[in-house]
């Protein structure tokens, strides 16, 4: 099986958020993560599931029209491949239906073991995204603050939206 893609879009719509996307069965499963991912395992980030996106959208960086996914500037904040690490021989699609996905990310900013677990509280769209305890985990810091730029273009969101002023 070819590697599965993952992408994290940094998206300034009405509110800045991060869209965490995993390729599965020909689509990008997608979650909006208001605070973005954290490398600190105890920082479990709310991830609100949104509509699946088409695979090609994973390569998009630019400015959305007002009627496209909320409008605003979209950055490819991280991308790479992911690999489900199911136990008991279950496949990733079954783990997804159960609301318990464990996987390895191979990106530039996000690496190692991660978990996406559907929250028992609230509706079925609420999940938690958090880092597994491994050598890539950290005790302090904020990866979204320390590494704010696009991994494909090196641009800021302001530069992507065209709002940056020339020096
Ligand atoms: Mn978004």
Short account of what is shown:
This protein is mainly β and 167 residues long.
Write the layout of secondary structure elements.
Blueprint lengths: L3 E9 L3 E9 L2 E7 L11 E10 L7 E3 L7 E13 L7 H7 L1 E8 L3 E8 L7 E6 L11 H4 L10 H5 L6
Bound molecules: manganese (II) ion.
Can you characterise this structure?
With 167 residues, this protein is mainly β. The protein has helices at residues 92-98, 143-146, 157-161; strands spanning 4-12, 16-24, 27-33, 45-54, 62-64, 72-84, 100-107, 111-118, 126-131. It is built from 3 helices and 9 strands; from the N terminus they run ββββββαβββαα. It has an 8-stranded antiparallel β-barrel. Strand 5 and strand 6 form a beta hairpin. The mean pLDDT is 92. Bound molecules: manganese (II) ion (MN).
List keywords for this structure.
single chain, 167 residues, mainly beta, binds manganese (II) ion
Structural class: mainly beta
How many E strands?
9
Which ligands appear in the coordinates? manganese (II) ion
* Terminus-to-terminus distance: 48 Å
Strand content: 35-45%
Helix fraction?
under 10%
Overall pLDDT metric: 92
What are the secondary-structure elements, in order, as H or E? EEEEEEHEEEHH
Low-confidence stretches: none
Shape designation: globular
How would you characterize the largest beta sheet? 8 strands, antiparallel, barrel
The radius of gyration is 16 Å
Q: Largest beta sheet: what is the strand line-up? A: 1-2-3-4-9-8-7-6
* SS field, number of helical segments: 3
Quaternary class: single chain
């Amino acid at each position: 099986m070819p590697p599965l893609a993952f992408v994290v879009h940094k998206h300034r719509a009405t509110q800045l958020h991060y869209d965490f996307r995993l390729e599965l069965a020909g689509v990008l499963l997608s979650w909006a993560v208001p605070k973005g991912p954290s490398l600190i395992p105890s920082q479990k980030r709310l991830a609100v599931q949104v509509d699946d996106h088409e695979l090609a959208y994973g390569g998009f960086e630019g400015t959305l029209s007002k009627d496209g996914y909320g409008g605003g500037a979209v950055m490819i904040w991280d991308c790479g491949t992911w690999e489900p690490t199911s136990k008991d021989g279950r496949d990733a699609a079954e783990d997804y239906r159960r609301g318990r996905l464990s996987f390895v990310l191979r990106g530039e900013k996000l690496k190692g073991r991660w978990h996406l677990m559907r929250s028992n509280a609230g509706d079925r769209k609420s999940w938690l995204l958090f880092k597994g305890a491994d050598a890539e985990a950290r005790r302090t810091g904020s990866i979204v603050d320390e590494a704010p730029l696009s991994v494909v273009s090196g641009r800021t969101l302001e530069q992507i939206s065209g709002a940056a002023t020339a020096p």
